[in-house]
């Protein structure tokens, strides 16, 4: 404890001293309060950055943090305009490359084409907590939702650097349990995006019982802030409804008695790391970890939402190509009454029509590139899992009723089939599904694809 | 303990399973023993790398490790020939850039110019211990001492990635002492490059006494292998000879009584990280750390070798421009008798001539770019230190007598002057030196520069 | 993590194996389910305890845990009847001592007088989590509130052993903050006995801000269960009301700006360790720790309840010795209206009478042994603190209004005076109080002591 | 790191302040340099010990450490004379007990019979590093080899307290390997008592290879000083000679390939803890740990010295009761030539006579209490192991040739038999031995016991 605070104090001290130096420096021009953030960035990239890098980087990041939304947008534009590649150098490098095409010429070209802001970001990382601040900087950038060129260009540089820095080889898997520090648990509550955690008591129910597990990836420099985490229930059977998993009154089983590990929630934590994929690695590592720890576990399966289903179905109902017969269309009108699910009889009628359509949604529909339409399906099937079972009315929450008419599905992770499933999808667009699902899909009406590409939004980062 | 071996076993298991999958994969082509390393690299970059990245990366690294020197040279050539940029894409990107010069075009150009082996190296990093293996890979590459284009090109990619991965923001400073794990201490013995450590007893003398300190930078993924370390003696005065610091029979003082911290040895540890600079950050952090821990410390100084001095002096003596008068030349002939230093009278005569010349060597001579001639001076003066004192016959070891006629010097780190010193050197080529040294330099003969650039060799990585 | 669960699994395995052995042992009599707990205790003390100590101890503790209240009372009686000293041996040792009075005879006598259950308890400690179970065993024993001889005798043995095992030399001081594991924080919420913590949000307010600290003593074998903890507020002045300290809307100050450390809550955690004193050591260690960490802190003070005051005052009012004049008695009648404190005018009148009486309560009244009447005063004054200030209506909670009519006080810990204050009290019964308090006491009515000894209850373990 | 030194500095500061207080205390009598150690001990036991316990305890321990051997002997005598039980109280307690014999009377008697130095030692434990100093104090006491009553009495008190403090329930098992801190490894080199470790290179050979293990018990307050450790070799067969185990040139096997764990060295580390038994617990825990970690291990066995054999044989040869026939006596004369073992022919002749006698030594001879004659046999057979095999000329070191004519033996730890073996020995004096050893013993001459009790010496603490 003392050690940690000691260390961060120390780093603080270096920074403070550096900033004083900047302000009071003798022969070199003083950094006065007036010195603007652009000049500071220039200094950081210049030779002064070598002597006072930590201090300059800390100053830039602090000024940035103090700016309002407009100021932070200006900062992005400034990065774009002032810290792009050196155009003269780049033109020269292109000329050289066109004449000699040697490796040296390519290297020169690659270096000349690198925007100067990439080195700037690397130097900003020298500041204490620099990595966290930079991730936050990109989070703000993405939140600006500005798709114009300057924002796309600057984001591309962040994405490139973060892809390298947050390489899975640098991450650590850590279990999250009831003996995890509270400041990390607090973030688990905040970041959970699939099945909301209402407070500390609910968190305790998800972590403390003998048949619950949770694992997260951490980066060494974001030591108290998870990147992604998965919640796992150990059970004796594949669950068909989320209420069974989260039931407040259930009796926990011992971990030794469990045969099945259920991944019922995966949440990405850092908006600033959007597009950098951790989930695939996380699930496979956790499967291995659990197998070793608990040899009784034979089945590794998810209980996952189907966020794109209701939207697809609505489009299907409106489509004029008669891909649904009148009977089906009529039955589906029941869905328009919000209370349909409370009526067992109506529910039974809906089920008979809905499940085959859902099977078709997964197995036959395709987004661009022959990929599955559903974003969560894209993730798990892309990882090499198999669509195992459709669960009717498995989640009665308002959100799930809206997104998928309550449908949830299980994806099965069978280690020996993962690569073959993945390749079949990647090479031939084949979907891995259980015979039952496949049979259901066959009974559905003709499969004129109407699947629209799902936009990339925060939900995509919170898939199970 | 159990936790660590457990984890590495687990990672091992994922890898092994992956390799079995590779060998036995159903629909995807099996990876047989015949599959060559180039094909494996192709697979790792392809979509299969997504499903089986860790396993493929581990397989490539293991095959590489088993190859002999010739095989490893072929591997470098293969990386150069097969994993350069996609030339067609690059040409197209150039064409686009020449017509629209938008940011998007620059991004496309930058990406197209990036050799595919950079992504390959990032994916190799997925393997267990991947980072360590990749650092070793570059170490071997540098040891090939092949300056032809393929080797330069591949090395440039490693250097670029490592510069980003080993950014100081990702490193941790850790004290090294007598309670440090033996496997790390063993490496301190091996890596010490300035004043050899003869064995565990001598190591103990450098770490255990109350007036000794040692600090190292570590990367989180090379947790038991330091990147650079510095050895420090706490004293009551600036020492003028290394024998005083390392004296077996000295009586340690308490840390509280010390006024001076002497950095008497800095060693880089990883040849594979050549060119990535840690020393500057290390020294400044250690100065801050010690100041805070021991407020009695007022002076932070090195006791450093002068590896370029004897060579420079030899060239000076041979020069025909009469920059040395006959008297001086005659006196310097005494140096040609290896036992000169044992004769107090000769030593006194030599001292009177040698010291002014040494002052001139530091203060007036310049390498290209107005930088100091001496490599160690370049490091410390470039960090913003000041040349404080010249110490005649300060190191009587054979190596030091050969390199510098026994001369050592003290560089002073005064935090408040560091930035000004650095800028004066960077902007105006001014050397920071104490009045005494400056005066001595003034007495030396005229300063026709004859300093030759010192080649970059391992010694440059072991400077103090 | 893995390491820890691994280890506890391992210990579990030894135990389970041992129990199977007990059940299946070949030549030695099998331990069947019928074997009663007394026989198991006999076995544990016999030579079999050497071979199978961990297993036998675990079996005994598990059986004990499964018993109901009546069974656990029987267990205490059994310990008393069957595991007292060996009377024959004791008589023989007395005879020997009476005839030779050598040291050997004393040793023999001391050993013979030791109840055999002391060794039994030491052997029960071999079981996994044995220490925790034994502390719990004494907690249950004390909760039986049975003051008959068997219970007193068995408790005396626990108290003797725990006094040795929980010697302060074996304890570790650890800071408690918002990065402390949740399972420990959960206990802080549960154990807080002075100012209740309503939930995690309130806990966060007490731990996370820069001007809050908390410290606890831990025993190495109860690693996730604190023994005692103190909550500290860093302020710029001595607070006069608890509401100021716990105010939800206050703005935290930086720790560097604080001049005063306020110990506003100390809670003992383990009822099973009643009578073993940690608070004195805890406060002094925390004072030292904070002084070193934050040199700006000059004042170390408590904000403490006065649990005995209202009771004492009620007795005083009923006393017939005219120690209170009519005017005072009449004013004090205002206290009988529960809403008196809401009326500023009444409050002012009460204050003028109440504070001098409170000063008298502290400074002049004495319990047996010339000790202060108030239990919290006994603790802090006994530690060498000084009574610094009386705070009228400092705690408006129902509990405080009932116990002390809202009065709180500050005790000042001045390291240089602690020993003298302690000795003055211990040797001469002198109370250390500030001049202001002393003056107030002088104005109070005559001091016929009516202080009744306060019974030992749980509250005494929750003093500030 | 910082945290640790920070903490110990802090503790130091409390102590120093306390000592200044003692010297400068206002109203309480000042502790001057003249105050003798006996007075300080009195103060520590008095009420002042409550206020200034840490400081007083530190002062006493420091004064003690500065005394020479004579002074430390005086200190023991002082403890005996001045800090025995209060005789008046004891006599009173005896009187009461003789009249009422209640539990309360027994408690009073037990407390009155407790020498006051037991509480004194408990209070000395308050000092920083108190536990380590007290263990050292007893080590010195035992080294005085003074068996007179004062020394026996004081030692009995230390032994009683240490038995409680170092209860196995408070100890931690930790693996020792090549990543263990050097200051601990240094102690492994120093404490190894069975097969000397010549230096760091040899230590590395015993710890670093994949087929070597080492485990130690630690007490939380002696965190860098092991109490006992065992060295283990993982092999494919039960070894019959120590040279095979320690061979410098052997090729390590992987841990997974091993079938047998060989405990080839167990060393107690703390002379001050003599008589407190850890070895039994250590071996059993390590067996469990290894079984779990390496399921391929089926056999757990020692390779142990036989320190009492040569002495026993010499006595047997001198005995006049004709228990050895002339032929055997003549053969045994070969042993009197120190070089006998170098002559294969002589060795073969000796072997035929020696091994049956060795079998008899183990199986038929008995020390007092029907316990095995050999001290190492007493330890392992007492733990429930079985004598598995006699190894002729298994250790050719001078020490082993002198102690046992080179004989070593294997004791087998089979968990399922341990309790039965232990009980058979404890209850019926039966020795557990393999059929082979038993057969050999039957061929030996008649078994008139001549075994002399082996004295308790340091060697007994270094058994394997």
TrEMBL record, chains A, B, C, D:
On the tree of life, the source organism's domain of life is Bacteria
MF terms from GO for this chain are: malonyl-CoA decarboxylase activity
Every copy of the Malonyl-CoA decarboxylase N-terminal domain together lies at 83-166
Which Pfam family, giving just one, matches this sequence? Answer: MCD
From the UniProt entry, list the residue stretches annotated as the region Disordered.
Answer: 442-464
In terms of InterPro entries, this protein maps to:
Malonyl_CoA_deC, Malonyl_CoA_deC_C, Malonyl_CoA_deC_C_sf, MCD_N, MCD_N_sf
| Listed GO biological process terms | fatty acid biosynthetic process
Q: This protein is called what?
A: MCD, Malonyl-CoA decarboxylase MCD
Tell me what organism the protein belongs to.
Mesorhizobium temperatum
